[in-house]
């Protein structure tokens, strides 16, 4: 069976009331020449995206991802995506994913330079094998993001809460973490509060309370974090959004980087200080995240 798939989407207006979008989706060769060199996604990173985990053919948390795609598009002044059309594209491409873990990417680009409108497509590819980091964890270093925690409200054009295609800064931070002998980074605001990792949300444990930074601080509101908070609350734990000063990160009783494809990677060190790894709890979080979730 082919392991990579791609569908081009011919975007329709957000109020289009058709119930079947099949004829707006076309299968294309994921390795083939499909996009124009004039693509603003390639030239400027001008577009938004989502990554959805797929487990044994089931796409996880589709509604939460579509809602964030809509929110990112709004922040970037892109035409509103028709969520039922995107839902149909996700269902179609997920039906082509065999057993195992896959990642579906949704991409909404501003389109071709001076072109008629946005370009949109979805891809499905096998997920990398994250079993080792889910079990053994990641060492992180804190890195200054260079903006204070009020920047998102003061300068919305920085698009801090949008999942844009411009991830060069995030990738540079991961490389810097590697140079400092760590596996990943945690961004900290210039006024000293924990934000997020370059490709994940941060969840910390203090006793029986689990906390994560407030999305208003200019971070992505993670779908995995939201799902885990609902799960932890159902198990009787307290959960909450907080402003977390960076020294609390180093004193946490436990911590995880959480995201849709890597799932929950326990944090085992922050800036060289060890953090306890609760193997049983982490395994139970992974089991939950691998179960079918709507
Ligand atoms: N924050 C950033 C910057 C991310 O890139 C991601 C995921 O890629 C997340 C948080 C976690 O989001 P989610 O759990 O929806 O995958």
Structure description:
The chain is built from 9 helices and 14 strands. With 294 residues, it is an alpha+beta fold. It folds into 2 domains: 5-126, D-amino Acid Aminotransferase, Chain A, domain 1, CATH 3.30.470; 131-290, Alpha-Beta Barrel (D-amino Acid Aminotransferase, Chain A, domain 2), CATH 3.20.10. It binds pyridoxal-5'-phosphate. Pyridoxal-5'-phosphate is lined by residues 51, 196, 198-201, 220, 222-225, 258-260.
The poorly predicted ranges are none
Strand fraction equals 25-35%
Terminal residue distance = 26 Å
Named CATH topology of the largest domain: D-amino Acid Aminotransferase, Chain A, domain 2
What is the architecture of the largest domain at the second tier of CATH? Alpha-Beta Barrel
Q: Please tally the β strands and state the result.
A: 14
CATH homologous superfamily descriptor of the largest domain: D-amino Acid Aminotransferase, subunit A, domain 2
Task: Please give the share of residues in helix.
Answer: 25-40%
How large, in whole angstroms, is the Cα Rg? 19 Å
How would you classify the helix and strand content by structural class?
alpha+beta
Bound compounds: pyridoxal-5'-phosphate
How many structural domains can be distinguished in the coordinates? 2
Order of helices and strands: EEHEEHHEEHEHHEEEHEHEEEH
Mean pLDDT: 97
């Amino acid at each position: 069976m082919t392991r990579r798939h791609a569908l081009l989407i011919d975007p329709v207006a957000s109020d289009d009331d058709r119930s079947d979008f099949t004829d707006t989706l076309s299968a294309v060769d994921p390795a083939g020449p499909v996009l124009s060199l004039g693509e603003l996604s390639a030239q400027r990173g001008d577009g938004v995206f989502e990554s959805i985990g797929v487990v044994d053919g089931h796409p996880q948390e589709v509604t939460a991802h579509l809602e964030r795609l809509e929110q990112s598009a709004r922040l970037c002044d892109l035409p509103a995506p028709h969520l039922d059309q995107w839902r149909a594209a996700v269902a179609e491409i997920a039906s082509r994913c065999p057993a195992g873990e896959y990642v579906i990417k949704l991409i909404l680009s501003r389109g071709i330079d001076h072109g008629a409108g946005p370009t949109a497509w979805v891809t499905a590819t096998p997920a990398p094998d994250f079993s080792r980091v889910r079990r053994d964890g990641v060492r992180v270093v804190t890195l200054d993001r260079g903006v204070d925690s009020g920047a998102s409200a003061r300068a919305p054009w920085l698009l801090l809460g949008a999942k844009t295609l411009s991830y060069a800064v995030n990738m540079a931070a991961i490389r810097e973490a590697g140079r400092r002998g760590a596996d990943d980074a945690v961004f900290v605001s210039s006024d000293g509060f924990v934000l997020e990792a370059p490709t994940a949300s941060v969840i910390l444990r203090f006793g029986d309370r689990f906390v994560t930074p407030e999305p208003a601080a200019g971070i992505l509101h993670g779908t995995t974090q939201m799902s885990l908070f609902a799960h932890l609350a159902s198990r009787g734990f307290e959960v909450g959004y907080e402003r977390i000063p960076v020294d609390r990160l180093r004193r946490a009783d436990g911590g995880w980087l959480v995201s849709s494809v890597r799932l929950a990677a326990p944090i085992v060190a922050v800036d060289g200080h060890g953090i306890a790894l609760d193997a049983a709890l982490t395994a139970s979080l992974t089991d939950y995240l691998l179960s079918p979730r709507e």
